[in-house]
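To whoever is on call:

I kicked off a structure prediction for a single chain this morning and the downstream step that reads the tokens threw a length-mismatch warning. I double-checked the sequence; it's 123 residues and nothing unusual in it as far as I can see. Pasting both halves so you can look.
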Amino acid sequence: MEDTAYINFHLENGAPGILWVTQAAPGQYCRLRIRVWGDMGGLDWDQEKPEVLRYVPLGEQEQIFLRGHGNGILPEAERLIHLPRGHGEAAVDTWANLYAEAGNRRLPRRIRAPKRLRGAFRG
């Protein structure tokens, strides 16, 4: 299909990955869904349910995390929450956080994101 792409890649540790992008999946409504699965379990986030992160540790009961302050979120991630619980953040905020973190890792120190956006995704 002309509107579908598959990308096979390997992470730095050698783990294989697949990226699937399509507008031809029936019933998916052109949404953004991110699923990450590995030998320790998986994460599942869906743009149509942005308040929910599903965590499935291998061999254990799945856990559902809801966005918001004081809900088991690490302080490093909590500082990226801009609105009180129950108010959906726009995709613009999501991408702003992502780009700020990428910029903090790649750009010279003299060009930095605001302090409130620094360091959430330390590896």
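Update from on-call: the warning came from a stale cache, not from the record. Cleared it. Sanity check on the structure: The mean pLDDT is 75.
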